[in-house]
Amino acid sequence: MDISSGGARSKVGPPRPESAGAPARPKLLPGRDPFHQFFATAPVPCPYVPGRAERKLIVELAGRAAPGFYDVLSRAGFRRSHRFAYRPACRACNACVPVRIAVEQFAHTRSTRRVRNANAELVGTVLPPRATIEQFRLFVAYQHSRHRDSEMAAMSYGDYRGMVEDTTLRTMVVEFREPGGALVAVSLIDRLDDGLSAVYSFYDPARKPGSLGTWCILWLVEECRRHRLPYVYLGYWIAESPKMAYKARFSALERLSDGHWLPFPEGGQRDNHEGTKSTKGDE
Fold first, then answer.
1. Is the pLDDT score of 186 beyond 80?
2. Residue from 81, 87, 119 nearest 200 by CA
3. How far does CA 147 lie from the centroid of its chain?
4. Which residues of 47-70 are buried (b: 16+ CB within 10 A; e: fewer)?
């Protein structure tokens, strides 16, 4: 399957947000486009910063216009779960900072070069968004190793199928295999008009060498270069969450601030006071 075309299969099912806590009794926000009804979720405990509450602004992605609508939403800092787009709408907290890699400016660091070389034998294959038992077994192993107490660790195969297949966008699955054919990592991605969005990645937690989460992102950077796409969207950076702070390791990172994409501060803590969340952490 060529990444330039994309593919999607829509299934009816409830949304499962990327983070813990499903939307509870959403209410319509007044003054929005009647063709795109935005809802605000009730507050739930934040899964990333202890002691804080999390709220989301969500909108359904439906119909033939959904891919183009989501292209615009992605540039405004939204992410996707199933057929819904969302972004944080937390009161008195701006810890979640949307980030993306500017592909043309990306340059390997010593760390990312080491990851690239260590996993050079892996082959990535782009496939339609179809769940398989083989993928699910890897997903379960990853969840039980890295996120044992999370809501996702309790997902059934039916839940996993919904996560992969319940989409109206140009969604694809990338399988990464060793030369012998063993599946070691999977990335669920969306093709946008200006890049690729990393929806969710998981991998064999026992494989050596590791850093497969970083490898998945590096592969997306190279895939964007092959198809002349300018950005890899990584979701939210959260300085106060080790699971999300890892995104600051990548060069040519940009953040969304007051409606504008700006270069990320170089070095060190990268604006610790702002704080930041999507592909789960490459711990």
1. yes
2. 81
3. 16
4. bbbeebebbbbbbbbeeeebbebb
Domain positions in the chain: 112-228
Q: Are strands 38-40 and 27-28 parallel, antiparallel or unpaired?
A: antiparallel
Beta-ladder partners of 88:
56
**Which CATH number applies to 112-228?**
3.40.630.30
Match 């990592």 to its residue by tokens: 185
pLDDT (tens digit, 9 = 90+) per residue, 62-117?
A: 989 999 999 999 999 999 999 999 999 998 888 999 999 999 999 999 999 999 99
Which of 197, 232, 282, 245 is CA-nearest to residue 105?
232
pLDDT 10s digits, 42-61: 999 988 888 899 999 999 99
Distance, in Å, from the CA atom of 194 to the CA atom of 269, rounded to the nearest integer, reads: 28
Please state, in angstroms and rounded to a whole number, the distance separating the CA atoms of residues 130 and 273. Answer: 40
pTM here? 0.82
